[in-house]
Amino acid sequence: MFSTKVNSLYTKLTMTEKKIADYLIINGGDVDGVTSYELAERLGIGQATVVRFSKKLGYRMFGEMIDDAKNSVGESSSEIQESDTASDILEKLGKRTCDIIQAIRQSNDAECFVRAAKLIDGAKNIVCYGYTTSNLFASYLSELLIEIGKGALCENNSILTKRRVFQLDPQRDVVVIVSKSGEKSEPVGIAEYARSRGVPVIAISNAGKNPLVEASDVHLKVLEISDRSSPAASMGTDAGLVYVVETLAACVFQCNQKLYRRQYGNNIVAAFSERK
């Protein structure tokens, strides 16, 4: 998981942070039990910098990062090679997907999901938006919310989305934006527009700081692997997006199970009636 987290944030790390990351990846097998003071001494940097780095990667305690770095030795073996069979790929992608989901679980504070779920639970209208491929996940969230009776919709056009946002009630509605990087101008522009109108914004975006996070009220973290050297390099990351989207929908459902269970049942009955 350590390597997975580093890969997702590497381009956003400072030179000193990259120094820490590179050292731990190369020497992961030789850091068992090392303290933040000892690691700082080895690298010739401040102890506070080392601790901040562990927090930036989503670890609650410095020791968790060291344990993860130690256990991540040999993760490069999960890279897909030309000689790999379908069975090898199943095994490698399965492990990578599990590592990504676990890393996301570790990076997110459950309270953020509670806050986001309460905003959606109390909203009459929910506008979801995702830029390019992220729109698939925004659309999926919208469908999950519609199934339990929420007034959700998803647009893939930024202009149409802003028109939808213009019609929202700041006291009763909410905007959810999915953006893997959190840096594209379209989703950031929609978030800033919503905030200017007083409409709460929930961002589902990369774990590091980015413009979208700064323009949102709640941030649910995912991982975006910046390595694009091959088609297989970032495979498995989308599973993390599905995990976060489904967790958010489940938390909304948990806000009022009796109501949402009943509305879900009514929607299923209506759907089958239409087919007949």
Please explain how this structure is put together.
- The chain is 58% helix and 10% strand.
- The protein has 2 domains: 2-78, Orthogonal Bundle (Arc Repressor Mutant, subunit A); 110-271, Glucose-6-phosphate isomerase like protein, domain 1 (Rossmann fold, 3-Layer(aba) Sandwich), CATH 3.40.50.10490.
- The chain is of the alpha/beta class and 276 residues long.
- Helix 7 crosses helix 12 and helix 8 packs parallel to helix 12 (237-255).
- The chain has helices spanning 2-9, 15-26, 36-43, 47-56, 62-71, 86-107, 110-121, 134-147, 158-166, 185-196, 211-214, 237-255, 257-275; strands at 125-130, 151-155, 174-179, 201-206, 218-222.
- A 5-stranded parallel β-sheet has the order 2-1-3-4-5, with helices on both faces.
- The termini are far apart.
Give a brief outline of the structure.
This protein has 276 residues and is an alpha/beta fold. The chain has helices at 2-9, 15-26, 36-43, 47-56, 62-71, 86-107, 110-121, 134-147, 158-166, 185-196, 211-214, 237-255, 257-275, and strands at residues 125-130, 151-155, 174-179, 201-206, 218-222.
Unreliable runs: none
Largest sheet properties: 5 strands, parallel
Average of the residue pLDDT scores = 87
- In total, the number of domains comes to 2
Derived structural class = alpha/beta
CATH homologous superfamily label of the largest domain:
Glucose-6-phosphate isomerase like protein, domain 1
**CATH architecture classification name of the largest domain:** 3-Layer(aba) Sandwich
Secondary-structure element order, N to C: HHHHHHHEHEHEHEHEHH
Q: What is the molecular shape? A: globular
